[in-house]
Amino acid sequence: MLDKVLNAESVAIIGASKNKTKRGYQAIKTLLADGFEGDIYPVNPKEDRILGLKCYKDITQIEAPVNLALITTPARTIPGILRKCGEKKVSGAVIIAGGFRELGGKGKELEQEVVATAKETGVRLIGPNTSGMINLKSNMNLVGIQNAPRGNIALLCQSGNMALTLITEATIRKHEGFTYYVGVGNEADIKFHEYLEFFRNDPDTKSILMYVEGMSEGREFLQEAHKTSIKKPIVLLKSGRSATGKKSAGSHTGSLAGMSEVAKLAYERAGIIVIENSDELFPVAETLSSQPSIKNNSIAILADGGGHATIAADLLSDYGIHIPELSDKTKEKLKKILPEAASVVNPVDVAGGTDSDPSLFADCAKIIIKDPNVGGLLVVGLFGGYGIRFEKSLAIGEEAAAHRFGAMVKKRSKPIFVHSLYSSYESHALDLLRHYDIPVHDSLDISCKCVASLCKYGNYLKSYHAKTNFIFDWRAKAKKEGQKIIKNAKKEGRHVLLEHEAKQLIRLHGAPTSVGNLAQTEDEAWQFAKGIKENVVLKIVSPDILHKSDAQGVKLNLSSKKEIQKGFHQIVKNAKAYNPEAEIRGVLVAPMAQKGLEVIIGTKIDEQFGPVIMYGLGGIMVEIMKDVTFWVLPVSPTSSKKMLEDTRSSVLLDGVRGQKGYDKKSLRKLISMCSDLIESYPEIEEMDLNPVIVYEQGLDVVDARIILKK
Amino acid sequence: MLDKVLNAESVAIIGASKNKTKRGYQAIKTLLADGFEGDIYPVNPKEDRILGLKCYKDITQIEAPVNLALITTPARTIPGILRKCGEKKVSGAVIIAGGFRELGGKGKELEQEVVATAKETGVRLIGPNTSGMINLKSNMNLVGIQNAPRGNIALLCQSGNMALTLITEATIRKHEGFTYYVGVGNEADIKFHEYLEFFRNDPDTKSILMYVEGMSEGREFLQEAHKTSIKKPIVLLKSGRSATGKKSAGSHTGSLAGMSEVAKLAYERAGIIVIENSDELFPVAETLSSQPSIKNNSIAILADGGGHATIAADLLSDYGIHIPELSDKTKEKLKKILPEAASVVNPVDVAGGTDSDPSLFADCAKIIIKDPNVGGLLVVGLFGGYGIRFEKSLAIGEEAAAHRFGAMVKKRSKPIFVHSLYSSYESHALDLLRHYDIPVHDSLDISCKCVASLCKYGNYLKSYHAKTNFIFDWRAKAKKEGQKIIKNAKKEGRHVLLEHEAKQLIRLHGAPTSVGNLAQTEDEAWQFAKGIKENVVLKIVSPDILHKSDAQGVKLNLSSKKEIQKGFHQIVKNAKAYNPEAEIRGVLVAPMAQKGLEVIIGTKIDEQFGPVIMYGLGGIMVEIMKDVTFWVLPVSPTSSKKMLEDTRSSVLLDGVRGQKGYDKKSLRKLISMCSDLIESYPEIEEMDLNPVIVYEQGLDVVDARIILKK
To answer: Which residues from A are below 8 Å from B30, CB to CB?
Structure first.
């Protein structure tokens, strides 16, 4: 659908100019200089010819069909121009101008008008507030960044500066380049997920590199990402995670950065490789576009001497990658060709064995890479520099080794990486490795990160999540009685359900909870309490008191008539002292929960991803340890298992130190119930089940709070 | 003391050779080529002249005094040669050969012999198993790495590969270099801390860069590091933190890598800047050697457009650095010179304002750097590339700006950093910045890490730890009764104190704990229980049962006679079933502890740092959340405050959600008591107080275990 836009065969430049400092001049110049394979039509009512091309007064006057319009004129002119584009049946337009949503107020209104005009006319929009786009296959360069290298990475970027950074890095590394660059800008019309779909279907694109500050349709994006990442890897850096970063991102693209943990987990579950250091972004994308994924999360390290091998082992272990013991057969073979001082465990240390002939590296690599325990090989240290550092003639042995490395990776079954101090020197051996598509880095950190990303992608491809469908509409259904509870609250002008209402609602859907009884008098409280086997808890019920504890509106563990009557009296008194205006509905009398493991489950509507759920350890711990995990709803039964496993406290559920475990099955059921509830009742904005007490058998939702959308 | 060794004025090359492939030839060649300012004496019984220099049969035959011997001969020859060196009154020797401790067995014995010979003869040793050393001030290059750049960083390194890496990096960056390089090797004689002391006193050394795999005298090192870091910064990477990394480090230098958390915390408390990514090692050392520290942990960011600024703000926030709001005055001044679209909050975005004249960057910088909220400035993006990317003539404005940046940092009060995409391009403006000692990086990650290291160092210099003495001998004294307890256990051949013995010992030193009474019979248990107000706990006491719970040897919360008698019976039965050979000393009857906050305190003897203490949240949480901190003993009263603050759970101690806090004073007293105890009784190997229950007032050591050295 975006084909005519991103693969346009003819481009009109609206705002074409003869003034060399203007974008409308530079754009035509760049298209001509880069040798754009399609047709170029300058549009400017005041000119006849620009840079030797016929100039049109108006886009509608162009005789031939036009696929794409590059609009370089100011914000206010856009709606009028778009209408003309519609008339001409142009498929898409790139809007460079800023001055829209990112300014707020009138800018926001103008953007809405632009989007409405686009919808009306059928013209799809890239931007506004974008540096433009480049199709490197047809040399359609609508950005002005020169000499961007061609390759097989699609670049989807929400900052012109970051695009320039990544393209500059590719230019300096001289190895891998791009199929497309799209500056997403304000994402007013075409969304991230539409670009993603296009790149998934583009045969030349092998990996997708994204820089995101904020996205508007997160759910659709996750769905497309999931479909895409099983076919080709996506590498993404999401910025704006700090308060200050968000402020800066906000002023930049006019989109709000989302809760960073939610986003990161959601991306990863859709198979995206999430990057946090910008230095790693390009090398990882390059690696994933050219290397086979590592299937067994294991790597061997080959070094001459320590230091590098030790650091690499540290880093890889930090990433959770195994440095497996080599098989006896492998070790024996290595022993035969290496000096006595060498280490044939993993990391393998040739201990100077390569000093006289570096081609020994290839002999070792050939033995190691065949070991079934090993998923790939990382060579660290001086390879490629023996001829530089020691003796010129050693370069021959290095080149011979490089050719043999090349042969080893020809079948693309296990990747080989080379870290070399001499990466930025003139080294023919290293150039040969690059020729054979073997990644060469001078940074150990980057080498290890690239290895880790191949492991991560390999692990993902094997995972349950890669293989299942990614469904967002899970067709859970509301119950009439439930709708009545919500309707009643709304009728009363409330957007908060009272505790017993919330508990009734979740109970309707099968959540184990003791709703309790609402007592109006001391005596009634005692009557209810008498019918309860356990000691009881009393809690104030008032639509005006959201935080019961703050109002001293809770009494725990009462049993005698006297305690209960006194408790009732005290609670009501406290509530009135806390808020004299508060409407008191009564006091809830419920059984004290038994001891068990306290957990918390909450849902909210995330700005980017819609309904999300949080699960974690409850009690005071939740705030201190922040041992929580998030999931974009719905949660399938298998996903809820993964959610539990994603917390450090999951070992508590299993039972530690000889203790019995807790009822994970019921907990997972409760999580699924929450998932269903949120779809069934779209009126719900937020839900907090806190605490939920989990037992060896069963569980109890002790407190529940549901907030409705206003 | 090491002056004559590291600043030697005359060097003998033992093992000098005419064979070009031998180290004994290369060493002389390098000294001649580099223009060593001192005298060179080849020693080889078979040659008369080598490379034009007179060759001696024996070191004793050299007429003039010799300060340093470079020994290139094999391991087994070393003791004999050292004796000759002693005879000649040589101050030091560099031993290149491997084949010592790192091989274990006979290698270890040989190393011991070498060290003994050194002690005897008074010759100080660098190595063995080292790549050598370089004094760049006198061009005494005993390594063979050529063209190492001179500068003001001292490099102390335990891997020849890492030394080569760092020197190569310095060579490529062409800005900063070294005063000395020392390859520490097996650290058999001269230790890390002695080198550190030397570098502290070297007037040309401005910062010290260390790569450590393991060190033998950690406590002495910490003391020297503390003395050094208030005068000049130390930057350190400790490798071998992973199991595999340790294996690799172990096989390399023959030293054991220590507990990584203990080491990291100990280093940081001595003021060392600890680095985890090797890419950051050199840039951070370079920054610290040339830039003023940042005193207020705050930085301003200046950018043209978003992207970079957002990423930088994220990274700096992750490092705990403030991106403060600028003062109203600053904002007003900026508004006057920047376009309307610009952002004058922090990060400041010139929004294209520099497109026509990049010298505007200097105008902005001058305003921002004067803001009292701001401790330094980070310029991110394209500075230095406007002339490359847009229009050649813009380079003039960039150069003008660079000169003005230079003037701003002349007084070295607040540092300016420049991140530039064009760092690896030919840019005169960037060269000017380098000339003015302004750090220029093409990596945002590295730029931010360098900023963070200046903040960290600035924070340290202001801290309590920087200002106090660092005493390791704290003169705590044993008590006679305590010594009796230990003696008694030893007499019985035990190296574990029984629970009541351990409790008696700590109680002697003032720890609040209910020792309880040891009952031999059911009736005796009941008699003891009767005298206790609270419910009681029964615990088996046996030198053969270390883990009482595993043996089902504990009964909690008993009160009635029947319960207690039954409990006694059951516990003894369980213990016998668990270990029929176990010698049962009786059953401890102690009061049940009240509820409170469970914490754990433990001590052990660390291989590198001697006695260390651990404090953290107790109960099941300790294993899951690992919310613990370590301290090398002793712990001063102020340090114990810091220890509590270093855990995430410290907010619990202060009281959260309206709860009252816990008795931190008693807790700190207990920590100090442990510190004293460990010095007073050097027989103690490990001590575990777990759990310690802390109350609003007071605390209770509920269980104590003390293990003696074997």
So the answer is: none
- Which residue of chain B has the CA closest to A170? B421
Of B165, B317, B620, the CB nearest to A656: B620
Q: Are residues A554 and A614 in the same domain?
A: no
Amino acid A445 reads D
Q: How many contacts does A have with B, using Cβ atoms within 8 A?
A: 223
* Domain around B526: 480-591
Tally the domains of chain A: 5
Pairing relationship of beta strands A207-212 and A150-157 according to DSSP bridges? parallel
Q: Within 10 A of A648 (CB to CB), how many other CB atoms are there?
A: 16
| Strands B684-694, B597-606: pairing kind | antiparallel
Distance from CA of B161 to the nearest CA of A (A): 6
Whether residues B377 and B425 share a domain: the answer is yes
Contact B323 A244 (CB under 8 A): yes
Please indicate, yes or no, whether residues A83 and A118 belong to a single structural domain of this protein. yes
Chain B contact for A445, CB < 8 A? yes
What tokens were used for A225?
């990402």
What is the full DSSP assignment across A119-132? HHHT-EEE-SS---
User: What is the residue-averaged pLDDT of chain A?
Assistant: 92
Residue-level pLDDT at A671: 96
Task: Mutation target for A interface from B251, B310, B391, B649: give the one with most A CBs within 10 A.
Answer: B310
> How distant is the alpha carbon of residue B376 from its chain centre?
26
Contacts of A549 in chain B (CB under 8 A): 657-658
CATH number at residue A612: 3.30.470.20
Whether residue A570 is predicted with pLDDT greater than 90 in this model: the reply is yes
Boundary residue ending a domain (A290, A307, A327): A290
Residue B665 lies in a domain: yes
Residues in B 273-292 with any Cβ partner in A closer than 8 A: 277-279
* CATH code, B552: 3.30.1490.20
Pair (B195, B279) in one structural domain: yes
User: Residue B246: helix, strand or coil by DSSP?
Assistant: helix
**Domain co-membership, B451 together with B329:** yes
- Tell me whether 0.85 is exceeded by the ipTM: yes
Q: In this structure, how many other beta carbons lie within 10 angstroms of the beta carbon of residue A41?
A: 22
Candidates A502, A570, A503, A513; CA nearest to A540 is: A570
Residue B500 in contact with partner chain A when CB distance is under 8 A: no
Helix ranges (H only) for B352-443 are 360-369, 386-389, 394-408, 428-435
A251 pLDDT above the threshold of 80: no
Task: CATH number of the domain at A20, please.
Answer: 3.40.50.720
Strand partners, A181: A134, A155
Cα Rg of chain A (Å, integer): 32
| Final residue before a domain boundary, out of B525, B559, B591 | B591
Q: How far is A236 from chain B (nearest CA, A)?
A: 13
* Domain-embedded: residue A490: no
- Per-residue pLDDT reduced to its tens digit, A360-384: 999 999 999 999 999 999 999 999 9
Residue B156 lies in a domain: yes
Residue B126, pLDDT above cutoff 90: yes
| Same domain? B508 vs B384 | no
CATH number at residue B215: 3.40.50.261
Full-model pTM = 0.91
Mutation site, B275, B277, B299, B311, interface A, largest A CB count within 10 A: B311
In terms of domains, do A220 and A339 share one?
no
In a domain, B617, yes or no: yes
Comparing CB atoms, the residue among B161, B307, B382 nearest residue A381 is B161
**Do B563 and B612 belong together in one domain?**
no
Computed on alpha carbons and rounded to an integer, the radius of gyration of chain B in Å comes to 32
Contact B393/A at CB under 8 A: no
> In 3D, which of B204, B168, B169, B199 has the Cα closest to residue B184?
B199
Most A-contacting residue of B248, B426, B427, B574 (CB-CB within 10 A), to test interface: B248
Integer Cα distance of B264 and A237 in angstroms = 29
